[in-house]
């Protein structure tokens, strides 16, 4: 499943992180 419909092959990393929670993203960063 692509998160960004307009993205072309090679424009998105092989592995992405979708924490779903801004505080969790800040913690992970």
UniProtKB/TrEMBL annotation:
Domain of life: Bacteria
GO BP annotations, alphabetical order: nucleoside metabolic process
Entry's Gene Ontology molecular function annotations: catalytic activity
InterPro entries: Nucleoside_phosphorylase_sf
Name of the protein: Purine-nucleoside phosphorylase
Organism: Bacteroides caccae
């Amino acid at each position: 499943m692509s998160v960004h419909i307009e993205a072309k092959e090679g424009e998105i990393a092989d592995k992405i992180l979708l924490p779903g929670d801004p505080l969790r993203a800040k913690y992970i960063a």
